[in-house]
Amino acid sequence: MRADVFLVEAGHAATRSQAQRLIASGVEWRLTPLAPWKKVAKNGDDIPAGAELQLLDAAEAKYISRGGLKLEGALAATGLSVKGLRCLDVGQSTGGFTDCLLQAGATQVIGLDVGHGQLHERLKNDERVVCVEGFNARALTPELLEKACDEALCEVIEEEEDNDTQPVAPYAWMRNGGQVDEDYDDSDDAKEQDVESFKAERAAKAKARAEGLAPVELRRKPGTENIDISPAFDFVTGDLSFISLTLVLPAVVQLLKPHGQLLMLVKPQFELQPGQIGKGGIVRDTALYAEVEKRIRDCLGDLGLSVKQWLDSPIEGGDGNHEFFVWAQQGAEVKAPAPVVADEAAAARPAVKAAAKRPSRADIKAQRAKQELYEDPEVASFGQPGPARSKQKKRNER
């Protein structure tokens, strides 16, 4: 069996991509306790059934994806604890961040992702996780999130066939397979019409369901009735691609509780202009990192958050880009301009008038003397009104 498939089936990895990272970190196998260990060189190496495995570096297997290792390192570096907190994971994907939060003690994680069917089955079946798919975080509002969470926890009520409500066909029609009986009378025509109408109605409903046009009736899945879906969180984190955080943060910040914490992964390649990014999507000019940091800090400051720390991600991105984390907190005081007191305004008026006073003759002569030093007469007379400019030109021509 292929080595990467063997690791997944043996329970050492959640996905083949995770298994391949484990193989790159070092995996060995043997058939008997006394046999020497054999190193797996590549993903397609054959491992016999029943072989014993040894992982040389099991860190890659700790979480669903390596994103969990990134968040784990950032939590350790900042000293943040998510134990007992309700968390929002923006850009949930396969669930690396979600897995890390749950293992760190979070009571609930609500995850958003624009894609579908990416969250790992283990997390999907965890009652502490609510997965909202096909949702663009840029359009996020508290009301929309609550509605989306409710729909994610619901199932479609299938319409049941109820034979008791079906109209009864006339006696002669039922007894003789549609042939008119000798005791058939006109009163049976109405019943037969009811049967045809019923059949047409059923056919129309079936067609509407097949085309997705029928109204859908939903109900909460068993066991989910008491799940908290309120759009207010103690902690918000996220790993987003192909969009700038400055476009998403204004929507996300609305969902933080007072003094709530935010810890977002920053990918410089999605914060810069196309011309600033090198071949292969790699940011090679490290001087641009400061520009990215300033842009994110300014955005958070404008939203009323206080930036606590800007730190390197403990692991590089999968494409080789250097990544960062930004830690900020809700409830920062935004300084407003101080109001002008009436007495101060009155005291300022004479100064304004003095500044607007016409310059003296001595000042004008000194200014002209400086202008005569210019080599280019057009530059010397630049900015002067019409008559003064003409006189200056004549002086320069002498």
From TrEMBL:
<keyword id="KW-0694">RNA-binding</keyword>
<comment type="similarity">
    <text>Belongs to the TlyA family.</text>
</comment>
<dbReference type="Pfam" id="PF01728">
    <property type="entry name" value="FtsJ"/>
</dbReference>
<protein>
    <recommendedName>
        <fullName>Ribosomal RNA methyltransferase FtsJ domain-containing protein</fullName>
    </recommendedName>
</protein>
<feature type="region of interest" description="Disordered">
    <location>
        <begin position="351"/>
        <end position="398"/>
    </location>
</feature>
<feature type="compositionally biased region" description="Basic and acidic residues">
    <location>
        <begin position="360"/>
        <end position="373"/>
    </location>
</feature>
<dbReference type="InterPro" id="IPR047048">
    <property type="entry name" value="TlyA"/>
</dbReference>
<dbReference type="InterPro" id="IPR002877">
    <property type="entry name" value="RNA_MeTrfase_FtsJ_dom"/>
</dbReference>
<dbReference type="GO" id="GO:0032259">
    <property type="term" value="P:methylation"/>
</dbReference>
<feature type="domain" description="Ribosomal RNA methyltransferase FtsJ">
    <location>
        <begin position="63"/>
        <end position="329"/>
    </location>
</feature>
<dbReference type="GO" id="GO:0008168">
    <property type="term" value="F:methyltransferase activity"/>
</dbReference>
<dbReference type="GO" id="GO:0003723">
    <property type="term" value="F:RNA binding"/>
</dbReference>
<dbReference type="InterPro" id="IPR036986">
    <property type="entry name" value="S4_RNA-bd_sf"/>
</dbReference>
<dbReference type="InterPro" id="IPR029063">
    <property type="entry name" value="SAM-dependent_MTases_sf"/>
</dbReference>
